[in-house]
Amino acid sequence: MINISILGAGNMGSVLAGKFSLRANVCVFINEFEKNYNFSKNIEVVCEDTTSSYFGNICLVTENIKEAVEFGDYIFITYPAFLFEKYSKLVCPLLRKGQHLVFVPGSGGAEIQFKEALDKGATITGLQRVHSVARLIEPGKKVKESGIRKSLKIASIPSSFNEEANKVISELYGLPLETMGSYLDVTLVNSNPILHTSRLYSIFKDYKSNVDSYESLPLFYEHWDLETSNLLVAMDQELFDLIEEFNKEGIEVNQIITLLEHYESTTPEGLTKKLNSINSLKGLTTPNVFKDGKYYPDLNSRYFTADFPYGLDILLSFCQLFNIECDNMLKVSDWYHRVTNTERTFSLLNYFKSKEDLLKFYKL
């Protein structure tokens, strides 16, 4: 059986640990924040879609990153993007030729932060989107998933690894996979970096300091409104302007569809109704801190700490490198950095010498 290491014992990592253990030898790495989970080798996965459950059988649970990396033929990384820089420095020096990194999902600059893996003879594969919505019931013991997709899309660097990655990852998930020609179909996917950020901006755009508070907050998706949909569609168009530039440069990015198409809508009004009605997203709250009977935005939520500086700002950096007008993305990013008193720090020129150097990388 193939050996799989999973870095991250949170929502998605727990689901994958149980699911993959049915078909492979699985090791789970738990970091300093997850060790209190007392992660069980027999984690239960509850499938809401089928009202059934099963138990995984984990071979190894470890707090030793070296042990985890050495174990895996395939190493699945489920951490949020703000941890990529930290774990790239821990993981890449430990890699050996022939190992394979898989990012779930693969956006957030994963391939950029882990470029060194290619120098070690490893490959990089990213899922365009996660396969389901995962939520911990009892950390380390029980997790549920819902809204399981009928298929997945992946891309690899180098692209010559696509076929092998498809075969292995499809078997692990038990789902059909489609391989995409360019990893940019993963990097530029119009998911959380514009979905979450547009919604947070619409809800909290008048928030000025930690003194401001709210009597109540809308549910994130069930109360999604037309204002957010209009903003999201505008940001989506800016992203497609960028995609068109890559196509002009001979890098075909053709596996991303507009969010209106993705959510089977034709207008912002239809998009609003669709997002209000998706069962797997019902009940999800807006990230908040409740204190003294008042609500405050939870600026430490991953929706903030990952999706702005390691999501939206990465898309912005691409747009700016290609001189794409992105007023809506810029407005939302500026708001985030003003509220958090931070600056945009991500720049593609910290990783690539020039636009030509970047294009060469994505043609691998």
Order of helical and strand elements = EHEEEEHEHEHHEEEEHEHHHHHEEHHHH
Strand content: 15-25%
What's the total helix number? 15
Q: What general outline do the C-alpha atoms trace?
A: globular
- Which spans have pLDDT < 50 for at least 5 consecutive residues? none
| Largest sheet strand order | 5-2-1-6-7-8-11-12
Tell me the radius of gyration.
Answer: 20 Å
A few lines on this structure:
The protein has 364 residues and is α/β, with parallel strands linked by helices. It is 38% helix and 17% strand.
Descriptive notes:
The protein is an alpha/beta fold and 364 residues long. Helices cover 38% and strands 17% of the residues. The longest helix is centred in the middle third of the chain and has 23 residues, at 226-248. The chain is globular.
Topology diagram in text:
Layout (H helix, E strand, L loop, with lengths): L2 E5 L3 H10 L4 E5 L14 E4 L4 E4 L4 E3 L2 H7 L2 E4 L6 H8 L8 E4 L6 H4 L2 H4 L3 E5 L5 E6 L3 E5 L5 E6 L4 H12 L3 E3 L4 H4 L4 H13 L21 H23 L10 H4 L5 H10 L10 E4 L2 E4 L4 H4 L2 H14 L5 H14 L14 H8 L2
Parallel strand pairs: 1-2, 1-6, 2-5, 3-10, 6-7, 7-8, 11-12
Antiparallel strand pairs: 3-4, 8-11, 9-10, 13-14
Helix pairs in contact: 8-9, 8-13, 8-14, 9-11, 13-14
